[in-house]
Amino acid sequence: xxxxxxxxxxxxxxxxxxxxxxxxxxxxxxxxxxxxxxxxxxxxxxxxxxxxxxxxxxxxxxxxxxxxxxxxxxxxxxxxxxxxxxxxxxxxxxxxxxxxxxxxxxxx
Length: 108
Known about the structure:
The protein is α+β, with helices and mostly antiparallel strands. The chain is about 35% helix and about 30% strand. It has one helix and four strands; from the N terminus they run H-E-E-E-E. The chain has one helix at about 1-40; strands at about 45-55, 60-65, 70-80, 85-90. The protein has a four-stranded antiparallel sheet, with helices on one face.
């Protein structure tokens, strides 16, 4: 009986961790496909895609993208609904302020 209880506790601890990891990866792939297939960016144009999660945040999942030709700007994308993918905001890495007109990849 003790063995089953231990296994049950381990499973209860692993399921939330695995769920978060799977959702983060799913959202990253959705955004990557959106940028390459729908927005026609070449794969080389994307320097990095970083999936993010915050326990108490709303939304709790998002993806940060840095483009190769604009390495000082991080663009935030959401992918919660397959039909409503898109860019939400941007910020610079060094904290400087840029207007949307100064950005190469800003979409609204």
